[in-house]
Amino acid sequence: MLVYLRLLKESFGFALNALRNNKLRTLLSLLGVTIGIFSIIAVLAAVDSLDRKIKKDLSSLDKNTIYLMRFSFGPSEIPQWKREQFPNVKYDEYEYLKSSLNDLNQMAFQFFVNRETIKYQSATVSDINVVPVSHEFIEIEGLEFDEGRFYNESESNSGSAVIVLGNEIASGLFEGASPIGKNVRLYGQRFTVIGVLKKQGAGIFGDSNDTSVFIPVNFLRRMYGDNNDALTPVILIKPEKGVDMDAFKAELTQKLRNYRGMKTDEIDNFFINVLSGFTDLIDGIVGQMNVVGWIISGFSLLVGGFGIANIMFVSVKERTNLIGIQKSLGAKNRFILFQFLFEAVILSVIGGVVGLFLVWIISIVLSKAMDFEFVLSMGNVILGTSLAAIIGLISGIMPAITASKLDPVEAIRTGM
Predict the structure, then answer these.
(1) Does residue 155 register a pLDDT over 90?
(2) Is residue 295 packed enough to be buried (19+ CB in 10 Å), middle (13-18) or exposed (0-12)?
(3) What tens digit of pLDDT does each residue of 166-200 get?
(4) Which CA distances in Å does 235 have to 137, 274, 291, 327?
(5) pTM of the full predicted structure?
(6) What is the DSSP string of 154-201?
(7) Is the pLDDT of residue 203 over 60?
(8) Would you list the domain boundaries of the chain?
(9) Nearest-angstrom CA–CA distance, 159 and 115
(10) Residue 74 · residue 285 · CB < 8 Å
């Protein structure tokens, strides 16, 4: 065991020697490994960070939450021209389903609308996300407040001119002062502020509750009616925990079909989008991004492997005389083989560590420059180091075998 530790120490010395004595040649040869490890770990770290952010943003929602609407979250076998003929869900359908569905926890009615501008006296915040939704939304999404409250059932049903502000909206309009009870203008109307949400942080899809405002959905229904093209309605459904989702969706489908008076041979003219299906779709996309990253980075690693092999073949040639002397003094083939293998692995790991260091630096810069946590996990560090070691092992095997099979007399003569 001590012999191999000494061998490892000598190999490390030879590797550092190669870097010290042939700086340019060695650095250029290691560049392929550095770029390859950098590319793979950068892609994996970016995808992991993205995946973590998405799951964090969706963590407040139950994965069984259903979005009932005329559009599908994912690909559909139904032709687009046919999907475009589907009717929007209606408020009366929401009321009917809410009163008749079994195993229902909460149900809310919401409009997807265009972005707007909100004003308070001379202060203005543009491009805000408006969320017109019924009062049950707070139970579905689990909103938390800095101050104030969400609107109640009475205010929701009557379409009262009350509003809940996201944290950044409140800061932009009131600059630290309490907005509760103040009047803001939206859609040309006055709304009384009744609540301010806790700071959430940027959402992965561009929006977050920080840049959103919430108003009773019936306020917009009273202003624009139910058939306005600028309003896209959706029914949010949260089943009871532990419910059989297939049975729940079957009941939901049947009740809505019956309410719409659809015939048996007609296809469903609505989509039941389950949030868990959406997360599965995201997981699939994340997996594909990882595969693409591996394929692209694989070419750099291939070039890096050739670079390491080149260094080792040159090293064998330069140390032929030394190899001959070692063998003449009793060094076994295995000793010479491991000596060069260790050296190849050490050189490759040095290149890999440089690549990991670059990823770490970039992750810090991006995390500070953007409102996004770019994380280089310990798992990716171990993966990058292991991958570099494997590349060194594979690249160094042929030069090491060549060195180990040298005849000692010939080696000494060749090296003289």
Answers:
(1) yes
(2) exposed
(3) 999 999 898 878 899 999 999 989 999 999 998 87
(4) 10, 12, 36, 80
(5) 0.61
(6) HHHHHT-SEEEE-HHHHHHHHTTS--TT-EEEETTEEEEEEEEEPP--
(7) no
(8) 2-57+283-415, 87-269
(9) 20
(10) no
